[in-house]
Amino acid sequence: MLDITVIWKTLGRLATRVPYTITIAFVSILISTALAILLSMIKIKKVKIASALVELYLSFFRSTPGLIHILLVYYGLPLVLKPFGIILDASGKDLYSIAALSLSYAANLSEILRPAYLSIDKGQHEAALCAGLSGFQKEYRIILPQVIPIALPAMGNAFIELIKDTSILFVIGLTDIMGSAKNIITNGLGINKVEIYIAAGLIYLVITTVGNWGNHFLEIKCQKVKKHQ
Amino acid sequence: MKIFVEDLLSIITVVPRTMGLALLVMSGSFLAGLVIAAAKMSHNKVFNMLSRFYIWYVRGIPLIVHLFVLYYLFPKNAPVSVVLIVTYVLYSAPGQAENIRTAIQSVPKGQYEAAYCSGLSSFQTFRRIIFPQALTVLLPISLTVYLGNIKGISVAFMIGVVDIMSQAKLCSALNFGYVEAYLAAAVVYWVLCVGLTRLFTYCEAILYRKKGIAVS
Amino acid sequence: MLEIKNVHKAFGDNQVLKGVSLKVEKGDVVAILGPSGSGKTTFLRSINFLEKADKGEIIFDDIQADLAHATKKTISLIRKKTGFVFQNYNLFNNKTALENVTEGLIIARKIPKKEAIEIGKRALDKVGLSDRYDYYPSQLSGGQQQRVGIARAIAANPDVILFDEPTSALDPELIGEVLQVMKELAKEGTTMVVVTHEMGFAQNVANHVVFMEGGIVVEEGTPKEIFSHPKEERTKQFLRRVVGYEDYSI
Predict the structure, then answer these.
(1) What is residue C64's three-state secondary structure?
(2) ipTM
């Protein structure tokens, strides 16, 4: 039988790790969005050589599991940076985590942003140029405001998925929600495993439920904006 | 470099096994997805609520948590690969349900109307007119799902199921070449995904040319 | 005032323009006619660089430029001297009618916002949309959208306005309101180049008619010359085909 009091107590302990987990997810989504914009731009503008590299990047990150990304970053990044005189030790687990998630989600997000951008009618670009806007003004004032409501709900979903994906980061020893659940189990010499995992599950469930509410609200707002566009 | 090649050769031996596991997962989740799709589209309030509750619970919690919970809830002597397949089927069923729904709804209403007017029954309409058209949408999605499964079951190493990922982990534990092992695994995943996608596109083109269906 | 010389353009193997030239004087209303695929839209679009010509020259007042290798600065300069009205309106979906008109004034021409809004309102009043300032494109009919399109083109007081089949995407009952606005602009002496299928407009409003087919100018002249005494066999054939055209409200 499940021991409810254990679940209850564990919930309290794991809840303290929520802000840390969300922060890691949030920083990762910011960096990956910036990266995704860059990748999409290179691909859309068909920049020579760079766009072939982007193709390679997207193909690699979309073909390999997230676990591989985190382990490669964890073991590989210090080796890559060593020749540049940057010595990384194993302690900055949050940095490795953010780096891996950002690289991984940049590929996902660019598959949301690029189609959203390309869905804007060619005539919008032409009309903006005819009105005398410069290339940057055109993107910033006419195209982007139309791309955002199309892309935002999908980006919101990706953010929720990313929060769920933080649960594998314990493999490099990050003490996020899942990582501290693992620690509690180790410190308790392995008793009440199921209860502790269920507690972790419930925490994630609360986060994703709130996230989905927020995203639903966002979707309605975007729908409204799109409706009069 | 030597370590990398050794790892690569060792990992390649488990590719068929990984592909098999992913195929089992896909078949299972397709069947489970049909049930959920039916419940979701049904007008029965209870079924509707149940399916919504199921989707909320299953999709709201990371796969890895489900995997550990079920691992410890299963009888001690249950094979680990069964635990993995069951967990992954239950986890990916809602997504499959959504795919099935998208595919069926992609067929325009006029196709039903024309079929009924030609005197076909609703089962005949589905079997002969709707399903073949839905398939052209469902097949490419299924490839994405399958590739997703191959990547997704990489969490299996945590409960000791043998697949590409766990083989890489085993290699790295034997020779301490962590980067080499995971790089080798990445290459195997990469080639597998790109290769299968190419193969699929090729087969699709042939199939469509034979059937005279425009590639969507 | 505006002269375009010897424009060539190919899409792949398809030679769309084979040396088209046009001269426009201040106050001219030029109608370009021709069957679909004759290259008339491509020619119009190459004037303000929406289409990059393979060869050709433009002389616009004191600006002289190669259509195939113009600098960004020249392109921007010529675009500011021209207005463009699109076949499918291309109003900015994320802006209201008034914002559509003021966008180019405020951002590209650096006119103070308050003044730009004044100009924008006047332009919309002129096309009969004084009650639609704050409507989004999706809330307007096709005819209203196209009139906003025209207001957007005239607001900056350009030297010439280019119209690319401005009525062909409209339902028949909405064509009249747009032609009416264009007719009034012509009366006020606005310089216009209009690619159109509206024979009535070409005959009654334009002072110069150009007939294009197969990527060349087959014949040009006054409406009277073209419609009453066409010299070329191809022009005659074309006009015979479109006899029975409907003349909306002009």
Answers:
(1) strand
(2) 0.88
